[in-house]
Design goal:
Major role in the synthesis of nucleoside triphosphates other than ATP. The ATP gamma phosphate is transferred to the NDP beta phosphate via a ping-pong mechanism, using a phosphorylated active-site intermediate. It is an enzyme of class 2 (transferase). Its cofactor is Mg(2+). The longest helix has 11 residues. The chain has a 4-stranded antiparallel β-sheet with strand order 2-3-1-4. It is α+β, with helices and mostly antiparallel strands. The radius of gyration is 15 Å and the shape is globular. It has 7 helices and 4 strands. The structure holds adenosine-3',5'-cyclic-monophosphate (CMP).
């Protein structure tokens, strides 16, 4: 199934120099990069992104974490990219994420888990609309079309 997902490298991932490594994993898997920017968001924006979690006890800390520095916001496209992207990322809690996954390899704390990926196609759509209101890149070359067949 052709899909798009929203992937965000969180401030700890950017500050620790993991951007290239993380992008490389999605590239080498064969997914297509459709959107990419480095942005520092404000509180209101972070609260919007995590609106579903506003009742959680960690919500405030989560928002402060996300606004603490630049994040890399991305759109990746490909077959089953939502579910497969979450496999590449690993379980939310790094204590449970398998070695070989991004969180399994690079994180130890659920409050500093390096990366976010949409949990479903529909939330991906919403997140892409929120983070990329200007739209995303158009691929004109047929170079990558074999991935979709
Ligand atoms: P993410 O995939 O971005 O989705 C929601 C985020 O909330 C999650 O990754 C973590 O960063 C954060 N989160 C979830 N549970 C907890 C928790 N128990 N304590 C702190 N942060 C959490």
């Amino acid at each position: 199934k052709m899909e798009q997902t929203f992937i965000m490298i969180k401030p700890d991932g950017v500050q620790r120099g993991l951007v290239g490594e993380i992008i490389g994993r999605f590239e080498k898997k064969g997914f297509t990069l459709k959107g990419l920017k480095l942005v520092t968001v404000d509180r209101a924006f972070a609260e919007k992104h995590y609106a579903d979690l506003s009742a959680k006890p960690f919500f405030n800390g989560l928002v402060e974490y996300i606004v603490s520095g630049p994040v890399v916001a991305m759109v990746w496209e490909g077959k089953n990219v939502v579910a497969t992207g979450r496999k590449i990322i690993g379980a939310t809690n790094p204590a449970e994420s398998a070695p070989g996954t991004i969180r399994g390899d690079y994180a130890i704390d659920i409050g500093r888990n390096v990366i976010h990926g949409s949990d479903a196609v529909e939330s991906g759509r919403k997140e892409i609309a929120l983070w990329f209101p200007e739209g995303i890149a158009e691929w004109r070359s047929s170079l990558h079309s074999w991935i979709y067949e």
